[in-house]
Amino acid sequence: MAGRDAVTEWTGRKGKLGAILMASPVRGLEEALLGRSSARLMKHALSSLAEDAVVLDAGCGSGYLSLPIASKLREGTVICVDLSDEMLEKLGKRARSRGLLARIRSVKAPVDATGLEDAVADMVVSNNLLHELRDPHAAVMEWKRVLKPGGRIALSDYRSTRLTRLIMRHGHGAEANDPFDVEGLASLLEEAGFEDVLVVPCRNKLLAQAAKPDGR
Ligand SMILES: C[S@@+](CC[C@H](N)C(=O)[O-])C[C@H]1O[C@@H](n2cnc3c(N)ncnc32)[C@H](O)[C@@H]1O
To answer: Could you identify the atom of ligand 1 that is nearest to the CA of residue 23?
Structure first.
């Protein structure tokens, strides 16, 4: 499902519980067991962003990436896109308690039809989302549209391994997507017209970086 038909399973009780767990120290355990792609993503993003940057966090959940990034921006904004009311509510509470509300713009929308203006973002980040999407191509095309020319993308997700395929089936049911492998994610980004595509494995996870052509 894509665009206006998109759904998220993270609603109701599952959404509330997920929002809490995704904001909890359990995440350190997940990274230690599966791979530190999101920590690497964060390091890359924080080392390269200007203080007035606009960052889109696609499938932001309760703010795992959005809040640390927002805390580094003096004037910029993190546009937090998610379809789950429960996730966005928790994100809002966490942003308020950290004094970061002015740096956060919450948008309830599908990640492949955000309704945002063209060329609004310096960077698009996303963690643990790609495997949930029915149409990842539509999502990366949308992220390219909202990026400024020369803007960058940094994505972290599960890598297709025996362990992660098992976890997906357990967590998302028989209909679950298999996560990408390195080549599949690189092809997705190249076919969408990104350049300087680099996808690296981090044990059972992946980190992808790429840039939107700057048109010169
Ligand atoms: C596994 S959670 C990851 C959340 C966050 N990035 C993190 O690392 O904690 C995936 C998130 O993506 C959202 N999501 C899934 N499919 C979506 C879609 N098509 N459009 C918008 N959000 C979506 C879910 O609601 C959920 O909050």
So the answer is: 9
